[in-house]
Amino acid sequence: MDSGIGLLPAAAAVRRLRPDADLLLSNDPDGMPWGPRTPEDLTGRALAVALAAAEHRPRALIVACNTATVHALPALRAALEPDIPVIGTVPAIKPAAAGGGKIAIWATPATTGSAYQRGLIRDFAGDAEVTEVPCPGLADAVEHADQEAVDRAVAAAAVLTPADVRAVVLGCTHYELVEERILAALEARGRADDLPSLVFHGSADAVAAQALRRIGAEPAPGAAPTGTLSVLLSGRPGRLPAAALAYAEGRGLTETASAH
C-alpha cells in the first residue's frame, strides 16, 4: 500500500523473490499526496487503504511508504495484527553506514530534519558522517512520470549532496524508481579518482524479504511465474495508472501478470 506508485519497487521485489505470489496493490488516488496532510488525516487515509486491502484477506501487508510508516504504522498494526502482519518501510541507514565514510539521505522535505529521521541517524548511523538532503517536488514528479520535473528535482538535490559521499540512502519509496537518474546526476558533478563507486540503499528488497519471513515463506525466485496482479484505487478495483508504466517496475509487474 501507498498513496500512489511508490509501492512499485516493493511489489517488484516481492515478485522477484516469489514469482508465484498474488499481489494486491492498494493506493489512494483520491487522497494523494499524503505528505502535506496532518498526521491524523494521513493516518485516516492510510487506514482506509489498508482496510480495503484487508477485505481481500492478504497474508501480509507492506506499508510501502516512508511517511505512512512514520505516522500510521501503530494504527495499522492495531487494526490488522495479528491476523495480517504489517511491515513498515524504514530508510536503510544502518546498512548504508556499515561501511563508514560519508553518506547522504535523500528524503522529502517533511522527513528531512524530522525527529523521526534524526532518531534513526542517532541509533543506526554509528560513526558515519551523514548529510540530510531534502528533495522538494521529487516524489510528485516521479508519481506523475514528469521527466523534466524529475530532472530538475534531482539536479537540485545533487547540488546539496557532498561530492565525496560513499553511499546514498533513498528515504522515499518513489525515489527508487529513478535511482539511475540520481546516480547520473551525482556522477556528473565529478568524483575524485580515489573514491569508491557510489552505493545506493533503498528499502524495497529488505521489506520484501521481511514480508516473506513474517508469513513463514521462503524465497523461491525460480518458482513458476503464476502470480496475479490486482489493484485497488481508493478501495475501488482498477488498474495501475499510466504513469506506472513509465518505469521498469510497473511494466514488469503488468507484463508478468498479463502473461497468464
List the helices and strands and how they pair.
Elements (H helix, E strand, L loop, with lengths): L7 H10 L5 E5 L11 H16 L6 E2 L3 H15 L5 E2 L5 H5 L4 E6 L7 H10 L4 E6 L3 H6 L3 H13 L7 E4 L8 H10 L10 E3 L2 H11 L14 E5 L2 E3 L9 H11 L2
Parallel strand pairs: 1-8, 2-3, 4-5, 4-6, 6-7
Antiparallel strand pairs: 8-9
Helix pairs in contact: 1-9, 1-10, 2-3, 7-8
Protein name: Glutamate racemase
Organism: Streptomyces cinereoruber
Pfam family, one: Asp_Glu_race
Question: Could you characterize what this model shows?
Answer:
The chain has 260 residues and is α/β, with parallel strands linked by helices. It has 2 domains: 140 residues, Rossmann fold (3-Layer(aba) Sandwich), CATH 3.40.50.1860; 109 residues, 3-Layer(aba) Sandwich (Rossmann fold). The protein has 10 helices and 9 strands. The strands form 3 sheets. Strands 5-4-6-7 form a 4-stranded parallel β-sheet. A 3-stranded mixed β-sheet has the order 1-8-9, with helices on both faces. Strands 2-3 form a two-stranded parallel ribbon. Helix 1 crosses helix 10 and helix 7 crosses helix 8. It is globular, with a radius of gyration of 18 Å. The two termini are 24 Å apart. The relative contact order is 0.20. It holds the Pfam family Asp_Glu_race.
Number of domains: 2
Helix content: 40-55%
CATH class of the largest domain: Alpha Beta
Distance between the termini: 24 Å
Number of strands: 9
Key phrases:
14% strand; Glutamate racemase; Asp/Glu_racemase_AS_1; Rossmann fold; 2 domains; alpha/beta; Asp/Glu/hydantoin_racemase; 260 residues; 4-stranded parallel sheet
